[in-house]
Amino acid sequence: MKPLITPSSGVHVVLPDYYSPDGMGLIVPKTKDGRVIFMLPWLGKTLAGTTDSSTTITMLPEPQENEIQFILDAISDYLCVKVRRTDVHSAWSGIRPLVSDPSLTNTANISREHIITEGPEGLVTIAGGKWTTYRSMAEDAVDLAIRIGSLKPTNFCVTKDLALAGTADWDPAFFTLLAQQFIRMKKTRSGKVFPGVMDTSISHHLSCSYGSLAQQVAVIAQDEGLGKRLAHGYPYLEAEVAYCARNEYCETAVDFIARRSRLAFLDTNAAAKAVPRVVEILATEHKWNRARRKLELKSAFAFLETFKASKNTQFEDLKH
Ligand SMILES: Cc1cc2nc3c(=O)[nH]c(=O)nc-3n(C[C@H](O)[C@H](O)[C@H](O)COP(=O)(O)OP(=O)(O)OC[C@H]3O[C@@H](n4cnc5c(N)ncnc54)[C@H](O)[C@@H]3O)c2cc1C
């Protein structure tokens, strides 16, 4: 049987903010060799990509040096400065699950859209798709299951208008309330606690990431002495690790540095420096023993090894 999925590797790199000043970005729909290249502002940095090459599926894909260089060269063509390898704060590879419709025979049917098929005995298969269409993908799959199973739901899909967690009482100025109402209590290694401001970059990050639930993170930062930044120059707080462990099922250090925060993707070296503290806080939350702590450190560093950043010395001072 023909496989449904054609895996395609895509590399992205993160560059300093000055490549996308004042929120400006660049997209080239067709470069001289016919590819798509973009450079966009992302979480205070510049995200540039991407490549599209056939690959095999592995758990920890790694970007190749020539793929990184291709992106840097391609965007350099449109700028008056050279984009240097040393500017790369993080580089990673992801595998797109492109689908080919098994009912079609030509290769042009490989798609970034999703397909849904009905298999033997009413088995519903959904494959491919994109992040931007995840909700309608789910709706399509459930609708087909309803049809095949002759189910009688009492209402149509409601997810289109379903508010996400943290939207209650939130508005774009919410970050100013956080900045005004909270302080960050920072604990030194020796246990001394001293106050710090909830500055705009931190309150804005908390408000955008957690919505009105950011208040709960700010309370942890203030009342439990977990108000230190996890990495110099980034708005992620120690309190977020505790909050994610308690409320969002964050069970591993990799989960925190990659998904709850985006530090691994923004700056690999800064993420590596944050790992021991992330493990320490998760260990307290989840009551990990020494062996589990060691394992978490090992798997977090192995994960970060797959990111190909250049060594970045600006984070050496360790002031948080
Ligand atoms: C290179 C590339 C470029 C892309 N570009 C775009 C784009 O421009 N626009 C767009 O809309 N989409 C894009 N996508 C697609 C988008 O990233 C995916 O559609 C989206 O991430 C899917 O989200 P998900 O939550 O379903 O799965 P995932 O993001 O894959 O999340 C699943 C998570 O589950 C975890 N997991 C798996 N198994 C287990 C287990 N047993 N226990 C615990 N955890 C587990 C995985 O580690 C993973 O973190 C792109 C994808 C790639 C690879």
TrEMBL record:
Residues 3-134 form the FAD dependent oxidoreductase domain. GO terms for cellular component: mitochondrion. Its EC number is 1.1.5.3. One of its GO terms (biological process) is glycerol-3-phosphate metabolic process. InterPro entries: DAO_C, DAO_C_sf, FAD-dep_OxRdtase, FAD/NAD-bd_sf, G3P_DH_FAD-dep. Pfam families: DAO, DAO_C. Residues 157-293 form the Alpha-glycerophosphate oxidase C-terminal domain. GO terms for molecular function: glycerol-3-phosphate dehydrogenase (quinone) activity. Its cofactor is FAD. It is found in: Mitochondrion. Keywords: FAD, Flavoprotein, Mitochondrion, Oxidoreductase, Transit peptide. Pathway: Polyol metabolism; glycerol degradation via glycerol kinase pathway; glycerone phosphate from sn-glycerol 3-phosphate (anaerobic route): step 1/1. Its main location: mitochondrion. Belongs to the FAD-dependent glycerol-3-phosphate dehydrogenase family. This is glycerol-3-phosphate dehydrogenase.
